[in-house]
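note to self: the first set is below, dont mix up w the second
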Amino acid sequence: MTTETKIENKTSTSPDFEKQYRLITESKNQWELRKRFIEKYWDKYDEDRLLCLAREYISILFSK
């Protein structure tokens, strides 16, 4: 499995960041929580793994 590398100088406040990573089905609240998760763990995981974990995190939070 290959993983694309993350763009190192991309900031979470840039419109491109939201355009690239926000899911069309996410509410504003879900996106803000997932974005914070992505920011927190940006350097800890490769991009595919990080995005998967972020989706699962939101799924768990909103399944209750």
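second set (the one i keep forgetting abt)
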Amino acid sequence: MSRPAQVTGRRGSGAAPRRAAALQQDLPVLVLTGPTGAGKTDWALHLAEHAPVEIVSVDSALVYRGLDIGTAKPAQAVRLRIPHHLIDICEPTESYSAGRFVADALASIRAIHARRRVPLLVGGTMLYLRALLAGLAVLPQAAPELRARLDARAARYGWASLHAQLGALDPQAAARIAPNDRQRIQRALEVCLSTGRPISELQRATSSALAGAPVRYWILAPRERALLHARLTRRFADMMAAGFLEEVRSLRRRGDLTPDHPAMRAVGYRQLWAHLAGAYGLDEAVQRGIAATRQLAKRQLTWMRGERSGERLDPDTGELSWIRDICNELGSLGL
């Protein structure tokens, strides 16, 4: 499970080049997304058992080492059998941005193509996926003094107040940023106040890093939200039974992490950390974690409704025909 991710596209920040001339134009890039709990991982693994694909994670929490149970990270044995990329690539003390993701994803795609195999991008961090498919905006660098002023206002009035200010300045950005997502609220206000232009406007002036590459894009879209909610509840219970609380307890024992680190703001981790800090009981932490997971799925579905290029698939009925069609297509390429 992942949370909305940090975006930065300024030069020198790890953002990808604006074009992808080095990509092999005869090999496709496959993309499979959907809300958390829709079954993306299972679909990807089943395809990898029948086709020459390697999985590239598009998940802002799977990049962190030590975040295993609460992120539903594929087991090490699975990753040894089926190649995975962009999993366990940084410490939870680090920040990982959309710009860094684009650079890392492009490097993985090129390496996979060089082996005459096909990358399958799988995950639900829509900001990362949109940054790769649509491009990153060239945004101004951080302004420490302005950020300090925003932090001071948030300390006095709350981040919901700053979210309301963002709504007045940039309604489109505010609509896709949660009122408690202080990192993205701060950045959107910082860009708007320092440039005089909405960040949503700047983000539209982009070009894809995959320009010219054949991209196939599917979205697992559950028909019944109630069924998805029931699945998310069961999955959270399974995570708790597998030792999720002890995993968070171990992360707290490290001594170098705080609730303010992006990794510890991931869904589930934030709620269990607060429980261990004495904010509320375990039952309430679990219920808050389930509610936050459902809210994440809702935000992901909202993003996906705006994706015009993705082909919608029913996660409960369409898997076999999807695998068959991809195998046939790759077979026609001699793969």
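remember for set 2: The first strand starts at residue 29 and ends at 33.
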